[in-house]
Specification:
Elements lengths: L2 H13 L6 E4 L6 H11 L3 E6 L5 H5 L1 E5 L2 E5 L9 E7 L6 H13 L1 E2 L2 E2 L3 E8 L13 H4 L3 E4 L4 H11 L3 H9 L17 H12 L5 H4 L1 H11 L8 H5 L12 H14 L3 H14 L2 H17 L2 H13 L1 H9 L5 H7 L1
Parallel strand pairs: 1-8, 1-9, 2-5, 5-8
Antiparallel strand pairs: 3-4, 6-7
Helix pairs in contact: 1-2, 7-12, 12-14, 13-14, 13-15, 14-15, 15-16
Amino acid sequence: MTPQALSAYLDNLVRERIMFSTMIWGPPGIGKSSIVAQTAQAHGIGMIDLRLSQLAPTDLRGLPVADNGIARWAAPEFLPREGAGILFLDELNLAAPVMQGMAQQLILDRRVGSYVVPEGWFIWAAGNRKEDRAAVFDMPAPLANRFVHLFVEPDFESFKRYALEAGINEQILAFLAFRPEMLHKPDPVQPAWPSPRSWMMANRLHTARLDIAPVVGNAAAAEFAAYLRLYRRLPDIDQILQGKGDKVPFPTEPSVRYAVVIGMALRAADADQAYEGFRWLAEKASTEWIHLYAIDVFQTIRSRGKEQQARFLGFTRDDAKLKKFLDSYAATFPNIHARQA
């Protein structure tokens, strides 16, 4: 499944209070841990990120304490005692078999030693696969059989949705839209290689005008540098968004088109500018480019607040061409279409 589908699945588990232990499998760097954290935040519940590979058995089970001649286990302070949340066992299969065996009691019985997991806490885990070149141990069959297993793969559309909300630099997003295969490309030789996680790190470095090769590798950084040279050929995006682009032609080079469309979607400061970008594309570009712009600019406008979203919806009602376009893509934009009705 895609990261976006994983997010929806986990959201439903919490919403329906399905307390099955859940294991999330996928390559490193695609955002498994972030999605779990976002799910907890969205539902207003706690989250404890526990790395079993960094613990000894006594760290989880606790230390024996004498009590009237009887040894009782003093549970560690990092385990939850009350409330609701997600107990997240990240990198579970990096843990040695003895620790996975200890986790088996926690996952199966929701307890270890004398400690009992509170009723409101979900137990989820995540791990990499052997084919990801991760130093993982085999998961014991009895432990594996206790989980709901979810398999997630990198996906550009899911990354783009997250990146738009995070305010990623338009040049990085335009590059990945043009070369989506560069989103996740492990390199068995180099320590730095492209992944959704490393591109978000690259975003910080690029914004600070630093070389991004240390996080995405030399090959990806060289391609990105070549792509940046295309920006010298971009039309004036700000002029278009101000409604002064009637004489500005739509570029012919596909890579430049991606840069213009994504640049307009990210730079639209309000509903008026978003609409001007839509109007310009409707006059200059074919349907697929309008569609690409629409997906991104709707998300941008949502982030600008309800007032701007309502104003943009007003434009969709008043502009016959825009309304016709939205009607033809009602399945893609269900929220916008519903508000128009």
